[in-house]
Each structure stands twice: as structure tokens, then as C-alpha cells.
Amino acid sequence: MESFNLELHPTKQVHIALFQNVKNASELRQRFIDQDTTLTCSLINANLVVNEFHILLATNRAVSDEANGARKTHNIHSEILYNFGIMNNIGKIFRTFGISDDTSNIIAVRVGDSKEKAETFMRENIQGDLVPLDNLTHITNLKEVEKAYQTGDQGQDRESLISLIAGGIALRGHT
Predict the structure, then answer these.
(1) pTM of the entire structure?
(2) Gap between the Cα atoms of 75 and 41, Å rounded
């Protein structure tokens, strides 16, 4: 698990963990659907995440939206998931970037708390193997990412892809 302070919101600490071989995705997904207030982290399908910068883009926008009173979802953690999308259709974004019943690779993001509390919470709730975030390079399905973001074929060029994604995330809602 890695922790970051957001440059624009230095008082907000963000904790990001990558879990593989997750066994309880169905339960976690149901808790998300039920808006379980005890599920205080974002759960993202790791196959659609390019790198940690991608996660921090969505997280920074969610924290900014919350600070400006512009949140579109019920809490900061669902707002992070929403901010992975480039369109305004919340349901479609949740289905695309959120977890499904058979998701086995999950990115968990928690805003606030200490690193120790965040890691304890994630380990208690997600039944899987906590692995280094660097493992994401072996998990990401670039073809699915290109499809989700409608970028066209970028080959294996992660830098071009993340640049296009960043532009899409920044421009969503500004037509």
C-alpha cells in the first residue's frame, strides 16, 4: 500500500492498495450498491487502471469536487470511482470501472485516516493478497482501457494513453 498527500489538498492523505486474488468481490460489490456507510474506500477494477497517476487524477478531482460542493455521488469514495469516467453517466461509469462479482484484481483507495488505519481497514474488508502497486503493470488490460476511454489504438504506449485519459477526466462536464 502506498500513501500520498495531494498537492492541491495537502491536508488530505490518500491511501492506495492493490489486491490480487480477491475472493469476496461479490460481497463488496453488494455493499457498494447498498451504499453501506461502513465501506469507506473506493473499489476500482484494477484491469482498467494504467498507473498510480491515473488513480491520483481521479482522486484529486473527487477531493476538489467535494471541497467545492460539486460532488455528484453520495460520498468521497464513490466520487473517486465516478471520476475515472469521461462521461456524465454515473451508472455506466460504475459498471465500467467498478468491480463485478468476479473481479479478482482490485484497487482500493481511501481518503483520510493514517496509513496504518487505512491498511487495517482494507485488509479486514478485502479478502485477497495485498501486493505492491508496481504489479499493476502486469494486470492492466490496455485494450480494455482504450475501449473504456475511446482512445483508439495506442499500442503499448502508456504515456500517450495516460495523457489522453487525463484530458478526458479534466474535460468531463465542460462542454
Answers:
(1) 0.92
(2) 10
